[in-house]
Automatic annotation (TrEMBL):
Transmembrane segments: 30-51
Keywords: Membrane, Transmembrane, Transmembrane helix
Protein name: Pilus assembly protein TadE
InterPro entries reported in the protein's UniProt record: Rv3655c/TadE, TadE-like_dom
Domain of life: Bacteria
Positions of the TadE-like domain: 22-64
Phylogenetic placement of the source organism: Bacteria, Bacillati, Actinomycetota, Actinomycetes, Micrococcales
Length: 128
């Protein structure tokens, strides 16, 4: 026994079956770029928050080191170690306060030379 397909008067299949075959492909073609864009946005936010935390940690460590009397060269080396590749420090002694501002790139690899940079500033009281 063979099953015969129901056909309308013009020899076409009814609207319920074969007409929906391309719908999944069209939905996937529209939805996949949206999912990829969301993934890129989540990864960019993760990289930015990680870079901001590293810059803040480096600024705090540098301000503490400057406050206890270490030389600026040692403070800059410490900031470079804690802040990671590309971290740049501005060091100031303002009377009884030590101020360190750190800037570092948000991305790594190809994106390390991009325009996005995380900055952080820390202030510590200079030890007598």
């Amino acid at each position: 026994m063979t099953r015969a397909r129901a056909r309308d008067g013009r020899g076409r299949a009814p609207a319920g079956g074969c007409a929906e075959r391309g719908a999944v492909t069209a939905e996937l073609a529209v939805g996949l770029p949206v999912v990829a864009l969301l993934l890129v946005a989540v990864l960019a936010l993760t990289a930015a928050s990680s870079a901001q935390l590293r810059a803040l940690d480096a600024a705090r460590a540098g301000a503490r080191a400057l406050a206890i009397g270490q030389e600026e060269a040692q403070v800059r080396a410490l900031v470079a170690t804690v802040g990671g590749e590309g971290a740049v420090a501005e060091v100031q002694r303002d009377g009884t306060w030590a101020v360190v501002e750190v800037s570092r790139p948000v991305g790594g690899g190809w994106f390390a030379h991009g325009p996005l940079r995380a900055t952080a500033r820390a202030t510590a009281w200079v030890e007598p």
